[in-house]
Specification:
This protein is mainly alpha-helical. The chain has one domain. Helix 2 crosses helix 8 and helix 5 packs antiparallel against helix 9. The protein is globular.
């Protein structure tokens, strides 16, 4: 089991990482912008599933074979960076027809894969989650319960932000420019992954 201090540190670390901009949060905001709050709600489940799989796999992998293949994290960062760059290009193209079409709306599979490849999963597994979470079933369940309780409001915040842009509550903001700005954020994030992988 986790101690109270471990659980509090875990909650703080999770909250800080989940609320920071990144590929998944950018996609959630873009979905809220294009699809509205209600139609974007299922994406929270896709994000949760992606993180549970990613954190669990990374955590167990790092616990068993952290020193066996030192090159693997770099390869995964490069693969994640390429996928995120692909999402950035698609988002930039979709911004052109933002007011006329919702065909480029973010889907469950896109968000799941983006979350699965999100380097935050490795950060959660290797740094924020305690090692006990991957050695004991009860500790894993407690850590994941804390994670779920923090992920849902963070995801809803990003979707609501996008939806507020889309429905005119933030009328002074140009939605197309916001979406293109989001694509730039994704692009910079993919470049930072490539930089980290080669340095």
């Amino acid at each position: 089991m986790l101690s109270v201090s471990e659980a509090l540190l875990l909650a703080l670390g999770i909250a800080v990482v989940l609320i920071t901009p990144g590929p998944t949060n950018t996609l959630l905001a873009a979905a809220g912008l294009r699809q509205g709050l209600r139609r974007s709600l299922p994406l929270v489940g896709a994000e949760l599933a992606g993180y549970i799989v990613s954190i669990s796999l990374w955590g167990h992998f790092l616990a068993q074979a952290a020193h066996a293949w030192p090159w693997l994290p770099s390869v995964l960062r490069i693969a994640s960076g390429l996928y995120i760059a692909y999402l950035a290009v698609n988002m930039w193209k979709a911004a052109v027809a933002l007011s006329a079409s919702t065909q480029a709306a973010t889907g469950l599979r896109t968000l799941f894969v983006a979350t699965l490849l999100n380097p935050k999963g490795l950060l959660f597994a290797g740094t924020i989650f305690p090692a006990a979470a991957f050695a004991n079933g009860e500790a894993w369940l407690l850590a994941m319960s804390i994670f779920v309780c923090l992920l849902v409001p963070a995801a809803l915040t990003w979707i609501a932000f996008g939806a507020a842009l889309g429905n005119g509550r933030l009328a002074w903001v140009n939605p197309s420019k916001v979406q293109r700005g989001a694509s730039i954020v994704l692009g910079v994030f993919s470049l930072s992954l490539a930089w980290a992988a080669f340095h």
